[in-house]
Amino acid sequence: MDFDHYQQQQQLLSHITAHTASSTKKLEARLLQWSMSTEKEVASDLDLIHSILKHERACGSSLSSACAARIFYPQLAQLVIDQTNDKKTTLSYSLLVCMIDLVKHDSLTPSQSMHFIAMASSLWSHHKIYTCRKSMELCCRLVSRMPSIEGTFIDRIVAYIRQCRTHMTRLDVDKIRSPDYTEFFFEDTPSSSAMVYDRSTIRWLIQTTFAVLLKQGVDSLGRLMTEIKDLYKSMDTHDAKELLFDVCCANDDDTVQLLDTILSIYQQPQQQNAAFLSTIGINPHSVFLYFIQLCGNTHDIMVDLLLENDSEFIAYFHRYIIYATQYMDAFKKANRDLGNDIDTIQTIVANTLLVLEGDGFPYNAKPLIRRLSVFEEKLFED
Question: Per its UniProt entry, which superkingdom is the organism in (predicted)?
């Protein structure tokens, strides 16, 4: 891209983000230009299109009703979709990013979502690691939003897990679990089985698998469960919950998402997916108590998460305390298995209650206080 073209892109973007009076006409003119451009010419502007879509999603201005990006979102979205419809199209990194923008907007039809998944899942073993990451992220975000999943996508996950079993050694697993892990691995010999992977791709694989397990009545799910069990047996020296936290929990949001997803699976009306997770030692109690253990078996970090206005932890914690109160025997067993005693948990609960009953919380904590008090009473019942 030459400097003049780049400068034109930035000028258009600055008009759109500033909601200038001319921004609508300028974007409309550019859309007309794109409609008459070749695929290659549009591809050179995908980074600009991503920036416009990102602004539309984040626009909270009082002028948002006059936001050019918002007014022309349908045309922008269709432009991205059209880029994926040509059979000759190779999904570039920039196009994958724009496709993720559409998923975040939650405006795709079911057929468009399946089309995106079919195209993106074929890139999971791409020779460029950043393409692998974005293609897997796109699929994970789509699966999380879709009411059901086709068996062909389950087959794709199974095939990827088999690739992992073929190419990854225990040393690789240990490296991926390391917080300082930055390497990626690949097969030097070009072949259909070549694989590029790193901690990020494995994290997206795990999150996609959990998103599938949240669905009910998915065809071919038995094959996926069998494949995961075989993978777990091949790594019998590793603890499943420790692996999950090491790979998936890079920050608080990821940790809360993992805890909430596992709890949601166990709260489903049909329990076959929960029963499967229990066979590899994953249940709401084991992961929550392990999280508390990672926090030093104190209430401090938990209270910090409860204090965050935009944290999903509040809703999760309220749901989990209700669940744990209903299944106290299972909670106590998981606590013993981790080597904790009831007094430690009681101290954490008591200290949390003291903070909740203070005046520093930005919301009404009474419902949570009531649930925690009942939970505390149940702790010492026979």
Answer: Eukaryota
- For 100, the token pair is 């993720």
Residue-level pLDDT at 76: 96
Average pLDDT over the chain reads 87
DSSP 361: -
Residue type, 340: N
Which residues are CB-contacts of 293 (< 8 A; sequence separation ≥ 6)? 338, 340
Residue with tokens 């009545």: 217
- Residue 222 in tokens: 């038995």
Query: Measured between alpha carbons, how far is 77 from 53 in angstroms, rounded to an integer?
Result: 8
Buried b (16+ CB within 10 A) or exposed e, 44-57: ebbbbbbbbbbbbe
For 366, the token pair is 């009474």
Q: Counting Cβ atoms within 10 Å, is residue 266 exposed (0-12), middle (13-18) or buried (19+)? A: buried
Report pLDDT digits (tens) over 61-118.
Answer: 555 678 999 999 999 999 999 999 876 567 899 999 999 999 999 989 999 999 999 9
C-alpha 321: how far from its chain's center?
24
The answer to whether the beta carbons of residues 16 and 68 sit under 8 Å apart is: yes
Q: How far apart are the first and last CA of the chain?
A: 72
Residue 197, strand partner residues = 185
Q: Over the stretch 211-267, which tens digit does the pLDDT of each residue have?
A: 999 987 777 788 888 888 888 777 666 788 998 999 998 888 899 999 999 999 999
| pLDDT for residue 189 | 47
CA distance 288 to 340: 13
Q: Concatenated DSSP letters for 197-229?
A: B-HHHHHHHHHHHHHHHTSSS-TTHHHHHHHHH
Query: Of 235, 233, 213, nearest to 224 (Cα)?
Result: 213
Round the CA-based radius of gyration of the chain to a whole number and report it: 24
